[in-house]
């Protein structure tokens, strides 16, 4: 039986190990992906560090969700991608790392991002076995979405398409960010820099980016930020809220995007939203808590968009966005360091060190398969 390598994650503090698992038989309608690149995402590092309030139960599981690959084999009746473009073995493809069921209350309302059946278990013991981002193979079951990667795009540009890029693009689309809006981006990591570039492309009159690291803010400026707020110059939440008010003529922002991943940032961001403005909360998946008077959101009439995952068809828009902007903004050039899958422990340690030293979206760490 053919097999492939996968990285196995147990819990924070336990090194990954690499095991061989069977590759699945490709059912009618399915597609087996031969992975080529997987990026270490901020959320991977949260889990690896054990950032949440609760310890991660020590269960051996597969990992990696920000990745890309090529067609390894097509199941019976699969001849094209989701836009009816011919697919063949070896074609580069982008696809979501979750699978909406297409037959539930949410899916029939085109709310695929909220389908309760979309998650993948990623256990070692069950079909399709060798099936994750940090692995040799990934399996797209019948009903999956898949998009051919445009020829112009370098492969290194593609891994963030199915996580960071589609996530913030979907968030801004979902909240109907308008031409002329003032937009605040909290955090200039991977998600934040993409959000900056998209808000700028969508015609924001101001894109104000907040971060604690200057190289990240410089990159945000290259991606269309009109103003930056350094946490070194504005060290308290109150001073940053005040600065946003100044930059928006006392009004507050039309749209605030939280992509920090620290609970306190949500509280701070809510104070930056103008009356009846929008708050897009994406980053804070780590499980931290905040407390505030309930009337705060009511009296400010804040439109609060908690957002996890995206509608799969936004992947095509994300790919086209990269093609259109890659010569003007450093959005396609995101991987600077590569490690083979076997060196995953070294890669995570390097990514952690690199992040602390001011590493930016423009130099992320990828595993290659
Ligand atoms: Zn991710
Ligand atoms: Zn569904």
For the residues shown, what is the average pLDDT? 94
How many helices? The count is: 9
Ligand names:
zinc ion
Q: Spell out the helices and strands N to C.
A: EEEHEEEEEHEHEHEHEHEHEHEHE
Compute the separation of the termini in Å: 20 Å
Number of strands: 16
**How is the CATH topology of the largest domain named?**
Quinone Oxidoreductase, Chain A, domain 1
Q: Flag low-confidence runs.
A: none
In terms of DSSP E residues, the strand content is 15-25%
Domains (count): 2
Question: Helicity range of the residues?
Answer: 10-25%
**What structural category do the secondary elements indicate?**
alpha/beta
Account of the protein in words:
The protein folds into two domains: 3-163 and 310-368, Medium-chain alcohol dehydrogenases, catalytic domain (Quinone Oxidoreductase, Chain A, domain 1, Alpha-Beta Complex), CATH 3.90.180.10; 165-306, NAD(P)-binding Rossmann-like Domain (Rossmann fold). Helix content is 24%, strand content 23%. It has helices spanning 42-49, 164-174, 190-201, 214-222, 237-247, 263-270, 295-300, 314-325, 344-356, and strands at residues 3-9, 17-22, 31-39, 61-62, 67-74, 92-94, 137-140, 147-148, 182-186, 206-211, 227-230, 253-258, 273-281, 303-306, 335-340, 364-368. Helix 6 (263-270) links the parallel strand 12 and strand 13. Helix 2 (164-174) crosses helix 3 and helix 2 (164-174) crosses helix 8 (314-325). The structure holds zinc ion (2 copies).
